[in-house]
Design brief:
Helices cover 14% and strands 36% of the residues. The chain is mainly β. The longest helix has 11 residues.
Length: 346
């Protein structure tokens, strides 16, 4: 396959993550940048962040040096916002070589029918500083599915989930976890999750909190503590701004530690959710309702039930899109889910 010659800057700079959310309670945030060389000759310069007035970073600037084409360097800055900062801010980044300044980066995209191209963007990072409360510091087990970045996104809350293997599901002491999260499509791609589902239900019965993120119809086999159905063609709500109605405003998930309102569903991206349940046992409590234009109301997207001493939640809402894209309201509600070990009996 032959690709056309492309021209790129000698140096490029970008943020690996273009969006993030941070709690107001934190006084500093770590933000990485990536600098890349595209010149065959040795080159050195200085990289720094471009910050809002009154903000500072450590280091203030960092030296970069490359010997050959294709080398990359990741630099982490500890950002200190001005006192009282809250809301949305845009941070920039620049790398300087003598008098030349570079303020954009690129990613190479390839596709069989499109060939290869470099997509250029300014080096910009949008930071949302929001009121995000978390009760306790839950020990989280994470059952990965077909792939999402939710586990990494929880570092915003100071949490680092432990990824659970098949042997963990088979024999580990699951009671050591305050919360277990089941990743998207896990029941479709992992036989061990289906095989050891009874152990997960025992974990809930004995006091654990299990949050099952959206699953495909392979999950439509009553894997929960009580019967439910998705149906052959489970519903999704694809309008990202579809109105969300809180059906149980006094439920603990909407009270503690963050008071959830409809404003927390502003700014969501791409969709509300996918694979909503169609019917369920009366012991499940539907917590939210939303729907696309001319679609019947969908109440099967956030289901809660108590089982034994614990709590079981099925959530078809698109956390795997909202958290990596830095949606503040999604973080606030997800923090309430993670706080359930402390709040579920209120």
């Amino acid at each position: 396959v032959s690709y056309p010659l492309t021209t790129v800057p000698a140096l490029s700079i970008r943020f690996p993550m273009t969006e993030s959310v941070q709690p107001v309670s934190k006084s500093s945030y770590t933000i990485p940048i990536l600098v890349r060389s595209a010149t065959r000759d040795p080159v050195s310069g200085t990289a720094r962040l471009e910050l809002p007035d009154g903000w500072s970073s450590v280091p203030d600037a960092a030296d970069v040096a490359f010997q050959r084409d294709g080398e990359e360097m990741t630099i982490s800055f500890e950002v200190h916002p001005a006192e009282g900062s809250k809301g949305e801010y845009t941070l920039g980044a620049v790398v300087s070589v003598d008098e030349q300044k570079y303020r954009e980066g690129f990613q190479t995209v390839t596709a069989r029918d499109l060939g290869r191209m470099n997509v250029f963007r300014p080096a910009a990072h949008r930071l949302h500083i929001a009121e995000i409360g978390l009760e306790g510091k839950p020990h989280i087990g994470y059952i990965s599915g077909s792939g999402d970045k939710v586990a990494e996104s929880l570092s915003t809350l100071g949490l680092q989930p432990q990824m659970l293997t098949a042997s963990d599901l088979a024999g580990a002491d699951l009671a050591s976890f305050d919360v277990i999260l089941v990743g998207v499509r896990a029941y479709a791609v992992r036989e061990d999750v289906r095989k050891y589902n009874a152990r997960l239900l025992d974990y809930v019965k004995n006091g654990g909190v299990l949050v099952v993120k959206y699953q495909t119809p392979e999950f439509d086999a009553n894997f929960g503590p009580y019967p439910y159905e998705m149906g052959r063609r489970p519903a999704e709500v694809s309008e990202e701004d579809a109105t969300v109605t809180i059906l149980e405003p006094d439920h603990v998930l909407f009270r503690a530690p963050n008071k959830i309102t409809q404003a927390d569903f502003d700014g969501w991206v791409e969709q509300r959710g996918s694979k909503f349940w169609s019917t369920w046992n009366e012991k499940y409590v539907p917590l939210l309702e939303c729907h696309d234009t001319e679609q019947p109301p969908q109440r099967g997207g956030m289901m809660f039930t108590r089982y034994g001493d614990g709590a079981y939640i099925y959530s078809a809402y698109a956390w795997y899109r909202q958290l990596p894209n830095g949606v503040p309201g999604a973080y606030r509600l997800f923090a309430n889910l993670l706080s359930l070990p402390e709040t579920k009996d209120r």
